[in-house]
Amino acid sequence: MANLYKKDSPFQVYISFKKYLDVLEHIRYNDRLEYRVNYAESLIERTRNFKELKEGFQDISILEKNEDLIRSLLADLFPTGLTRNEIKAASIPLSNITFNYTERFKDILKDAGKDFEIELRNISDNEFYVFCCCLILQSYFKKDIKSTIPFYYDIPNKLGIMKHYKITVNSDFTEIYPTEEAKIPSDEIMDMLLENLDDFKLWQKYFPSQSWILKGFTIISLVDCTSEVALSDLKSSMIEIDPENLNPNENLTEIFKSYFDVPELSFGLMTFNKKEQKLDKLPIYESLLTNHILDFWINTFDEETRKTTFNNLNHNSKSIVVSNVDNLDENIRQLPSFNILKDNNINSFMVIPIMKDNELLAIMEFTSPIAGSFNGLKLKKLEFFTDMVLFSLSRFYFEKNYQIEAIIQREYTTIHDSVVWKFRNEAEKYFTASLGKKIYTLKQISFKNLTPLFGVSDIRSSSEKRFNLMLNDLNQQIEWLKDILTLTNSNSEKFLLALDIFENELNHEIKADTEQRLQRLLREEIHPFLQGKLEIRTPQEIKSKIQNYFALVLAQTDLFYNHRKDLDDSITLVNRKLADMLDESQVKAQQIFPHYYERFKSDGVEHNLYIGHTIAPDLHYTSKVVHKLRYLQLKTVCKMELEFQSFKKELPIPLDIASLIFVYNEKIDIRFRMDEKRFDVDGAYNSYYEIIKKRLDKAHVKDSSERITAPGKITIVYFGMENQKEYLEYVTKLQKKGILEYDIEFLKVEDLQGITGLLALRVSISQNVL
Question: Which of 50, 324, 425, 528 has its CA 20 to 30 A from that of 306?
């Protein structure tokens, strides 16, 4: 059985003129006007031999074969006097099958092109099916469904501008009734269905496919509502400007073409940076916008002229509209800005400042190569969505500031998620007091009785490596300079002598200020001398050497930085990878129990964890929490060592790391220091913990010159046998997992200033895992 719908539906569809022929029968026997009776009788006689017209058919070719007859039959519904004005046709309900067009409708479809196929706008297959079911409820079951969905056709005109037409439907000549396979739902089920319009499967269950008959035809009338639809689309686009969701509407320019009825149009927009008095592009829209005139303002006017222009705009925010640039005053045509218009084939344009409270927020531009595209009436149309532009820009700035604050919070302060609740509580008290015009002094934020966990993965001998690489850079730079200065053969003897002195000093008796004095000699004397050689008649060979030399000089220091850069790049890579692993581990650690976490990067990465009931007072806290976090910390540091071993060969400069964990059982307090915007241990007693941490870095094994830390090993420092027993259990677990070797060393730590009795165990990372 043929289906006149492209989409699945609950209907078997038949084209039928039965109900209209019934109307003609009524006129034939009841109308008092003789000419009306004769007219109806004539049409009925002409259709008598075409039973399909009354009984219904699905063969669309019948429409084409009987086009003249159908036009005559429907003549009362399609008055000839209105055929050039009305956009009207007969149709199958909700179908792309239309026929018996008015002349205006025919012209619209002709302009759209022979390949254009008319279709409903923005309706999915499931929505279409449910809507057909609603027609059954409304027509057959007489359900009062007041809400209706507006339908649109999008049809391009001959200039390529997309026009939007709203469809009104007359269904007087259709009838709907069930087949034998149809299900007749109860009132309760129908109410339930109407409460679940989005549940396509549910509707299909009670209204199976092709279980109902839809017979007849409809009359559709189209109204051009291009401006209204484009305006709605523009408003939607304005609302969607969101720094967090960078998905700009790529059809924005096309929407403007429809709204202004301009086939060739470019749109530009820049926001105004009040602080710097300049225009800023919107990065998310940069590829979609064309800022011919605004780009000229940015790139051509000097800073003083731009500031004057923007200051004038704040006082006189009148838009600029030029319908035809060829009609501009001769004096204006002589200005450089006029060339910009001609170079970019701009023959009509509008420039519109967007103002709020007499302050400039942004500037829009519309340009077109077609003269007469813009005028005062087009500018008037912008007033309909100016408020939405203001709302969108205000929201953009709000979101932008919000995101900036979030970045500052995330990147530049250490208010961790686990403790931010206490800051919020204080801020809420302050805000509530301010609403009541009361004074509230913010209290200090502190957390008491916390157990600390500390770990560090230190890059070994980084200071020594940096010193040696500095010597390599400076010696290489001196060799370059001596080679160049020897070739110049004029006024360079004193420089060569000074460089010999520095070279000897670097390699035999370097002093604290050697690098600074060399830097001063280069900046004040040698480099100006060489730059002077580039500006006079100097042999090209020497000029090339000088240019190659300056290409190796770091502008900020006037020194070579090649070898040290390799070291700094290596350290940066190590720090980033290790810090990322720590941060990743924190996701699991916070699930064990919320705690305060911080890490620092220098020549290696160190981290602190502070755990206790006061950080999460609503949760149950026991000593088991500390044991779980200590094990996870050790496991994480081991994985960091393994990860380092896997990528250390890729480093520009060979490096080693040595990892240490310090176990401390005493409770400490931490307090947020407002001046430093970070937490720190609170009180003299608690500072003992910090002193130990700092002195462990370079500590040795007792009665030995050996450091307690070693590359490829994990060192755990602690007080007392209780901690030793605890960590031996953790080490055993990791040995069974193949992460640690079975080579545990038990060490005594040398007595540090004011610190005695520290013990350590040291164990190697397994080589079999690598």
Answer: 324
Q: Does residue 590 belong to any structural domain of this protein?
A: yes
Helix (H) or strand (E) holding 219: strand 218-224
Tell me what pLDDT residue 727 has.
Answer: 96
Cα separation, 657 vs 713, in Å, equals 9
Phi, psi dihedrals of residue 672, rounded to the nearest 5° = -80, 125
Rounded to whole angstroms, how far apart are CA atoms 327 and 362? 28
Tell me the pTM: 0.51
Mean pLDDT of the chain: 84
CA distance 592 to 635: 15
Residue recorded with tokens 């790139």: 299
CA-CA distance, 175 to 658, in Å (whole number)? 85
Question: What Å distances lie between residue 684 and 425, 609, 668, 669, 758, CA to CA?
Answer: 28, 20, 11, 11, 21
pLDDT at 336: 63
Can you tell me the mean pLDDT for 346-360? 85
Residue 580 lies in a domain: yes
Domain span at 534: 462-560
Class of residue 90 by CB neighbours under 10 A (exposed 0-12, middle 13-18, buried 19+): buried
E strands, 370-514, are 446-459
Res 124 pLDDT > 60? yes
pLDDT(243) > 50: no
CATH number at 717 reads 3.30.70
For strand 657-663 and strand 713-718, is the pairing parallel, antiparallel, or unpaired?
A: parallel
Tokens of 45: 């006689």
215 and 245 in a single domain? The answer is no
Residue 431, pLDDT score: 63
Write the Ramachandran bin of 621: left for phi over 0, alpha for psi from -120 to 50, otherwise beta.
beta
The answer on pLDDT for 278 being more than 80 is: no
202-211, 236-245, 637-646: range with lowest mean pLDDT: 236-245
- Which pLDDT score, from 0 to 100, does residue 509 have? 83
Of 514, 533, 560, the one marking the end of a domain is 560
Q: Are residues 126 and 215 in the same domain?
A: yes
Q: Are residues 396 and 261 in the same domain?
A: yes
